[in-house]
Write a structure and sequence with these properties.
alpha+beta; 8 helices; binds flavin-adenine dinucleotide
């Protein structure tokens, strides 16, 4: 398959990859693995069996082969031409969820945030409830410093484990992570494998109530049942992206099969038949109109990966 000047050839790439205990899948369509339901193939999708398998792969893979990691794709726009090289999507070997002391939770990088919130509730742990509303994984939460309802990942993180590009395992303290608003300072090529999170002892009924409130607030304010990537743009210092987008008259505007959500205009929606190109073009149109009307240059929060068709 041809991206713009880029050839995606999963079978050929497979012959160059090291032997692993996990699974390789050539030309797996990323549209099946992202919330937006768009995106061409991962040249080869690799699901490592566990951290050791992942580290062994990274130690041995040829340096000229690009490697990209994804979670459950709730913050991703994968372009229609696909992603050259190997895309790593962690599997069951990264799904551990256990108590590691009072109010301390160890969660594998592929555990959904909502599962961590429910686990905390079961064990009467307060402080991790905000994760209830974020539809990604712990790996994605570490990379994005995901946050909501006045809390963010860095507030509850004790340490994270990561594997670097050469296959070395690191244990990073929260300070090492250099986290700020939707940002983590750890090199982009490093892959998180688990996190140790700290809550505090709380009252189960109160935590349950708080979780319900979070869910209700989400359902009211966000198009949570649609094909979307969540907040498209970062809030600029001192302003809210959605207000700028609204003031620019972009609520409900369409490009091809993509639409600016009426309910929350910092969300873009795939109405069903959108391509990644439609969504990206709509995002760029929003940026241009906001620049014209308010002078602010919005920055993408959604991560765009891969090549155009
Ligand atoms: C309806 C909706 C609501 C949302 N609400 C919120 C919200 O309230 N707050 C918020 O912060 N976000 C929100 N998001 C965005 C998104 O859920 C978060 O950014 C989430 O943390 C992404 O996790 P993921 O597993 O889906 O990662 P992906 O989207 O798959 O990847 C996101 C980034 O993380 C990197 N990454 C993923 N896993 C790893 C890993 N193991 N190691 C290293 N890097 C990794 C990827 O390379 C990529 O750069 C929302 C999204 C949607 C669709």
């Amino acid at each position: 398959m041809m991206g713009k000047g880029v050839v995606i050839d999963g079978e050929a790439l497979l012959t160059r990859l090291p032997e692993v205990r996990g699974r390789y899948a050539p030309e797996r369509m990323m549209r099946d693995l992202t919330w937006f339901r768009v995106g061409g193939p991962a040249e080869v999708l690799f699901t490592p069996a566990d951290e050791e398998d992942l580290a062994g792969f990274l130690r041995r893979v040829d340096e000229d082969i690009p490697v990209t990691v994804v979670g459950v794709g709730s913050n991703l726009l994968v372009r229609d031409g696909g992603i050259p090289g190997v895309v790593i999507r962690l599997g069951r070997g990264f799904g551990q969820l256990e108590l590691e002391g009072e109010a301390l939770v160890r969660a594998g990088a592929m555990v959904p945030d909502v599962k961590v919130a429910r686990f905390a509730l079961e064990h009467g742990i307060e402080g991790l409830t905000f994760l209830r509303g974020i539809p990604g994984t712990i790996g994605g939460a570490l990379r994005m410093n995901a946050g909501a309802h006045g809390a963010e990942t860095k507030d509850v993180l004790v340490e994270a484990r990561a594997v670097d590009e050469r296959g070395n395992v690191h244990v990073l303290s929260v300070d090492d992570m250099e986290m700020s608003y939707r940002h983590c300072g750890v090199p982009e090529g490093w892959i998180f494998t688990s996190a140790l999170l700290r809550g505090r002892a709380g009252d189960r009924e109160e935590i349950a109530r708080h979780m319900e409130e979070i869910q209700a607030a989400r359902e009211a304010a966000q198009p949570v049942r649609e094909r979307t990537g969540g907040s498209t743009f970062r809030n600029p210092p001192g302003a809210r992206a959605w207000e700028l987008i609204d003031a620019a008259g972009m609520r409900g505007v369409r490009v091809g099969g993509a639409r600016v959500s009426e309910r929350h205009c910092n969300f873009l929606i795939n109405e069903g038949e959108a391509t990644a190109a439609d969504i990206e073009a709509l995002g760029e149109l929003v940026r241009a109109r906001v620049k014209e009307t308010s002078g602010v240059e919005l920055q993408w929060e959604i991560r765009r990966l891969g090549v155009m068709k």
